[in-house]
Write a structure and sequence with these properties.
Layout: E1 2-7, H1 12-23, E2 28-35, H2 39-49, E3 53-56, H3 59-68, E4 74-77, H4 78-86, E5 93-96, H5 104-112, E6 116-119, H6 122-139, E7 143-145, H7 148-157, E8 165-172, H8 190-193, H9 203-211, H10 213-226, E9 233-237, E10 243-249, E11 254-258, H11 264-272, H12 286-289, H13 304-314, H14 318-334, H15 340-353, H16 362-383
Helix pairs in contact: 2-3, 4-5, 5-6, 6-10, 6-14, 9-14, 10-13, 14-15, 14-16, 15-16
This protein binds NADPH dihydro-nicotinamide-adenine-dinucleotide phosphate.
Length: 390
């Protein structure tokens, strides 16, 4: 029985992780769950999964949960409460599925406490990948990627010699706006950008998928998770989202992982590692699919992914600043305060204006991300396209 803590239990990944748990009751015990404000869903989850510990980042939501759960359930609050759950001595495995930079402290706490981590929160790696990987090695901790592309690469590397890797190839679905002409992009609505063709995910990552910033963030994540230089990490648009990513070896062979677009695949792989669970998902029917297509990403229409390479080149605090700027710009787009195309423009501006510093601590990474957020807010206010963007 693996005792798991699910951080971000009310989100898209968290809910699917609990679904995996409910399908394998003898395998996992939910020791704790954490979220921010969604007290209602957390209370439901406590009734169903009976965790001993709950952490709510928001103090008022923690009070609401405390009032509604059985007396034996300990309810922690604040960021410190979420990190305490991640580091709890009885936890064997932490699923880090909080969205945004808010997930970094608890990921770091889990690693420091020597827990195996299933990492969905890509921002942890984007903000402080080099530091976290260093600590994971020092603590002998395994980090199992949950992002489907990184899970695919992890699986494609298994049993191979890392020194023989030529390059990593991340596949991208191209997102909801793949075929949209450049002239139409500024007028794209929130609703249209949120309609992902293949994956059902939270709002932030769906918009990142539409701008291709998500793929850029994944390049940064891959750079640190797998220790591969950015010049050896490529992006290929693959609209069917069947090949989840690939590794090319020095003899020209490519090893890929294929599957249906269902996050329960990579989530269960990380949770059960080194075993696989008999998941009852619709099988991948290659004959019905007939063919798989690949095309290069278009940096003219979707420049956001190029910013990630730029941030890696500048190094230090730059990826954290880019991530913070993107969070603010995406939030502004979702509230109708800027246009779709402003997201990449604002991020590019913030990144260019930032003087990178060497990264020394998680706190520094978080403050760089906050700085990116603030600078992006300023630029969004100046852009002031307002509701016309809707
Ligand atoms: P969602 O927006 O659906 O959920 C976010 C979760 O994080 C919620 O449980 C939310 O709680 C919680 N949360 C937000 N802020 C805090 C905080 N300060 N403290 C504690 N909990 C917090 O996100 P997703 O599930 O889509 O994504 C989660 C992460 O996984 C992201 O980093 C994303 O990039 C990554 N990812 C997601 C994929 C997907 O398929 N969705 C695929 C690959 C990676 P509350 O509900 O209370 O606000």
């Amino acid at each position: 029985m693996k005792r798991v803590a699910i951080l971000g239990s009310t989100g898209s990944v968290g809910v699917q992780a609990l679904d995996v748990v409910s399908r394998f009751p003898g395998r996992f015990e939910v020791l704790g769950i954490a979220a921010n404000r969604n007290a209602e869903r957390v209370i439901e989850q406590v009734r169903r999964f009976r965790p001993r510990l709950v952490a709510m980042a928001d103090a008022a939501s923690a009070r609401a949960v405390r009032a509604a759960v059985p007396p034996g359930t300990q309810v922690l609050d604040g960021d410190a409460g979420v990190s305490a759950l991640a580091a709890h001595p009885d936890v064997d495995f932490v699923l880090a599925a909080i969205s945004g930079g808010a997930g970094l402290r608890s990921t770091a706490a889990a690693i420091e406490a020597g827990k195996a981590v299933g990492l969905a929160n890509k921002e942890s790696m984007v903000l402080a990948g080099e530091l976290l990987m260093g600590r994971a090695v020092a603590r002998g901790v395994s980090i199992l990627p949950v992002d489907s592309e990184h899970s695919a690469i992890y699986q494609s590397l298994a049993g191979h010699n890392r020194a023989e890797v030529r390059r990593l190839i991340l596949t991208a679905s191209g997102g909801p706006l793949r075929g949209v002409a450049a002239a139409e992009l500024p007028g794209v609505t929130r609703e249209r950008a949120l309609k992902h063709p293949n994956w059902s995910m939270g709002d932030k990552i769906t918009i990142d998928s539409a701008t291709l910033m998500n793929k850029g963030l994944e390049v940064i994540e891959a750079r640190w998770l797998f220790g591969v230089e950015p010049s050896r990490i490529d992006i290929v648009v693959h609209p069917e989202s069947v090949v989840h990513s690939m590794v090319e070896y020095i003899d020209g062979s490519m090893v890929a992982q294929l599957g249906v677009s269902d996050m329960r695949g990579p989530i269960s792989y990380a949770m059960a590692h080194p075993e696989r669970l008999p998941l009852d998902l619709a099988p991948l029917d290659l004959l019905r699919l007939g063919r798989l297509t690949f095309e290069p990403p278009d940096p003219e229409r979707f420049p956001a992914f190029t910013l990630a390479y730029r941030a890696l080149e500048r190094g230090g605090t730059s990826p954290a600043v880019l991530s913070g700027a993107d969070e603010a710009a995406v939030a502004a787009f979702l509230d109708g305060r800027c246009r779709f195309t402003d997201i990449a423009d604002v991020c590019a501006d913030v990144l260019e204006a930032h003087a990178a510093e060497p990264l020394r601590s998680v706190e520094q990474a978080l403050s760089a991300s906050d700085e990116g957020r603030r600078q992006a807010e300023r630029r969004v206010a100046r852009t002031a396209h307002g509701p016309a963007a809707r």
